[in-house]
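Workshop exercise sheet. Pairs work together: one partner reads the sequence aloud, the other fills in the structure field after running the prediction. Swap roles for the next sheet.
Pair: D.N. / O.F.
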Amino acid sequence: MRVKALFTGYDLVAGNVYEVIEEYDSVYELKCETGIYCRNKDFFKVIEYVLVSQGIEIFRTDDKEKAQRIMDEANKEYYEYLEGCSLAFKTSVDNEVFMYEE
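Structure field:
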């Protein structure tokens, strides 16, 4: 999971993104520029990965690999569908899936 610091202080820089090593009840263990620390979860915003098709949100997670895998599988099916439409001279519908980071 990745988190974005909301302020500067306690070895954090506002806007910087940090990789979480371990998540506990009220803190994240993460690597900062000066070492590995536990910091309060309230100091961060969790980065989420949003999958969108035709402008509609279809999936949301904080696991980038999972979002990437789902997007790749959906787009593989979509590209096969496009190829079938092209070979049959049929009109296709745009169902491509895109991933955004929030």
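Discussion prompt: The first strand starts at residue 2 and ends at 5. What would you look at next?
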